[in-house]
Amino acid sequence: MVKVLFFAHLRDTVGEDYVMIDANGKTISQLKEIVETKYNIPKLDSVMVAINEEFATEDEMIKTGDTVAFIPPVSGG
Fold first, then answer.
1. What is the pTM assigned to this prediction?
2. So where are the chain's domains?
3. Choosing a second label site near 32 at 20 to 30 A (CA), which of 43, 44, 68, 76?
């Protein structure tokens, strides 16, 4: 299982700070598809992703025990 953390509006949409997902051997891109479908979140294209506190690319593989964070773009003024 992988711990998936959500921040800002993503946390509000999911209703949890984090969820556990079986994503061992999947890529970040595949995990995004799973989360989009399961939690009805449209397009996570602009979301930055970190694995174990290191920013990750779309094709990086996820392992059991990893912590994956979805970090939405920050805006403000």
1. 0.92
2. 2-71
3. 76
pLDDT band at 40 (very low <50, low <70, confident <90, very high): very high
Task: Give long-range contacts, CB 8 A cutoff, 24+ apart: 46-54.
Answer: 46/72, 46/73, 47/10, 47/71, 47/72, 47/73, 48/72, 48/73
CB atoms within 10 A of CB 13: 13
Q: Which CATH superfamily is domain 2-71 in?
A: Beta-grasp domain (3.10.20.30)
Please report the pLDDT score of residue 74 as a whole number. Answer: 78
The HSE-up count of residue 5 (CA atoms within 13 Å, CB side) is: 13
Mean pLDDT, residues 21-49:
95
